[in-house]
Amino acid sequence: MSNARVTLQELVENGHLNTVPDDFLVSEEDRVKLEDGSCSLELPVIDMAGIEGERRGLVVQQIRSACKEWGFFQVKDHGVPLSLMKKMQQELRQFFDLSYEEKSKIRAKTVGDSLPDEGYSDRMSHKEGRSSNWSDKLRLYTLPVSGRRYELWPTHPPSFRETVEAYAEETDKLMRRILELISDSLELETSHLNDYFSGKYQQVYQVNYYPSCPQPDVTMGLRKHSDNNVLTLVLQDGNPGLQVRKDGQWITVKPVEGWFVVNVADQIELLSNGRYRSVEHRVFVSSKPRISLATFHAPTNDTVVGPIPELLGPKERPRYKACLFSEFKESFYYAGWAKALTGKGHLDHLLVV
Ligand SMILES: O=C(O)CCC(=O)C(=O)O
Ligand SMILES: [Fe+2]
């Protein structure tokens, strides 16, 4: 689309898109069907209250089964204050309600063929043969603090920066606690996974804005994919959209105020030698706009990622080759995300056959 210099939200709100343009169409088999999400299965819910005490054993068991069976779960009583979660959501709504001109002050620049990495941008293809997702995004590098580019952070509402800083700190603590539980569930030392990453993570804060859609059944907010990082924490608004693949069926994740969705991402699959799988998920759209905030907890680029030696032995050979996280990301983007999300194809070349 040559007029793709404005975001999708702007095109929709100005009445320029009454049908879904070709770039956004998904194949028949990737469309949301009525029966998807109608199944009564629900994601496991893990109550994190009291995990330093008597409940730990039970919670570790629940985490093990959630990671094995689903690769996804929801957490409640996780320690991040509800007031902060609500403030974050409210300020994000305020940001997306600003005029296009105001939001564009932090518009990300497209570099060559690549979709922009940081700042406010659309997800429309600027190149022949590539597909678009029915969403815009705001992406910021929030941790480590030294990697922040404040010039790309919204300045409206005025408290936004302070709220993101508090949110980054709280969610980082939560992810580390979840990684301790996952280490326990793999029968490793509690600190094993955090030590593996030398206690250093990159946190990426990604807001997905899914504008109202005139034909929700022919497109996708985000096509099916797995996340390339370690763990992802999703804060949803009240509108459903996220679907998780479970035994070949697509299950819709019910939004519940105060809960987070946690998903096991590719690095846990690699490190656990495939015991835990990073699971495909996707997002459908509707006539109502939706906002989600995905916080990605990722290794630093120079981390070698591959099966943890302590999990291997004469009976268990490595199923994946090790590589640098920076190389992993390159193949991830090469395999698909930037063109059209294509599920998990990017992991295939690391498989030891
Ligand atoms: O919008 C959502 O609920 C999920 C977003 C997601 O999968 C992602 O940002 O990778
Ligand atoms: Fe995702």
Automatic annotation (TrEMBL):
Pfam families, A to Z: 2OG-FeII_Oxy, DIOX_N
Top-level division of the source organism's lineage: Eukaryota
GO terms for MF: 2-oxoglutarate-dependent dioxygenase activity; metal ion binding
Domain annotation Fe2OG dioxygenase: ranges: 200-299
Keywords: Iron, Metal-binding, Oxidoreductase
InterPro entries: DIOX_N, IPNS-like_FE2OG_OXY, IPNS-like_sf, Oxoglu/Fe-dep_dioxygenase_dom, Plant_2OG-oxidoreductases
Family statement drawn from the similarity comment of this UniProt entry: Belongs to the iron/ascorbate-dependent oxidoreductase family.
Protein name stated in the entry: Fe2OG dioxygenase domain-containing protein
Organism name: Physcomitrium patens (Spreading-leaved earth moss)
